[in-house]
Amino acid sequence: QVQLVESGGGLVQAGGSLRLSCVVSGRTFSTYAVNWFRQAPGKEREFVATISRNGISTNYADFAQGRFTISRDNGKNTAYLQMNNLKPEDTAVYYCHQWQSWGQGTQVTVSS
Fold it and tell me: What is the secondary structure of 23-81 as a DSSP string?
């Protein structure tokens, strides 16, 4: 059974940083790209960032460009999302996604 487990969320002041982690089990992690999405209260889930199987290629939503960095360690079956200069509008539940599988999400709250 495939499982994705996110961690690293929390409460941070505006301008602060958080690093989210996503540990994947039950499949060969390096076979698929990894994506991060987020969903704020009352809003639809939106794309944040993606990283290719080998970690060479990345792509970001406009709001994430220059502030967020996606990475992965295939030896640890783990993907990361480093978030810097956080803003109150980044408040959301952040989800890890890989080929038809989703994590349970981790809450990020940014106070002004």
Answer: EEESS-GGGS-EEEEEE-TTS--EEEEEE-TTS--EEE-TTTTTTEEEEEETTTTEEEE
pLDDT, tens digit (0-9, with 9 covering 90-100), for 87-97: 999 999 999 99
Tokens representing 97 are: 């996604």
Residue 66, phi-psi category: left (phi > 0), alpha (psi -120 to 50), beta (remainder): left
> What is the distance between the terminal CA atoms of the chain, rounded to a whole angstrom?
40
Q: What is the mean pLDDT of residues 23-44?
A: 97
CA distance 101 to 77: 14
Rounded to whole angstroms, the Cα distance separating 65 from 77 reads 24
91 φ, ψ to 5°? Answer: -60, 125
- CB atoms near residue 43 (< 10 Å): 9
Q: What is the DSSP letter of 100?
A: T
